[in-house]
Write a structure and sequence with these properties.
single chain, about 140 residues
Length: about 140
């Protein structure tokens, strides 16, 4: 009975953890505009991952591994140690992957005269280069013509 309860709870929490990683906004329809790069500024791009998801998933994994070890009190101790160890490990792994990456803020004057700013990972662009802007909002990207 206890095994079924732990397995069901672990499955539910794991599913909720994965759901937290799902995108919350629908993607914008593809829009392509052309223009010329006016300015490029170096910047850092921070990740937008949910804080704590690594710890939750690591803790659930550790709990599952701990449930496979021993019996009685030893099993309970193994589950607690596994959950704590997995949570710490998952949190450290998330910190490693959540480091900001080098990026560029690119200002493009479109053919209609509108100035558009797009922030994206560093690319091989220069001022005066003719480019396309694909997408809109946070999904927009600058690509060479």
């Amino acid at each position: 009975m206890f095994k079924r309860f732990v397995a069901g709870t672990a499955t539910l929490l794991f599913t909720l953890g994965l759901t937290a990683c799902a995108p919350t906004t629908p993607s914008a329809p593809l829009e392509i505009r052309s223009g010329v790069i006016q300015q490029i500024s170096a910047t850092q791009i921070a990740h937008n991952h949910e804080t704590g998801v690594g710890a939750v998933i690591g803790g659930l994994g550790g709990l599952g591994v701990g449930a496979l070890i021993g019996s009685g009190t030893g099993k309970a101790v193994a589950m607690v140690i596994g959950a704590v160890g997995g949570a710490v490990g998952g949190n450290e792994i998330q910190k490693y992957y959540d480091k900001p990456v080098a990026g560029q803020q690119i200002f493009v004057r479109t053919s209609s005269g509108v100035l558009v700013s797009v922030t994206q990972p560093t690319g091989n662009f220069h001022v005066g280069q003719r480019v396309y802007i694909e997408g809109a909002g946070t999904e927009a990207r600058v690509v060479p013509q």
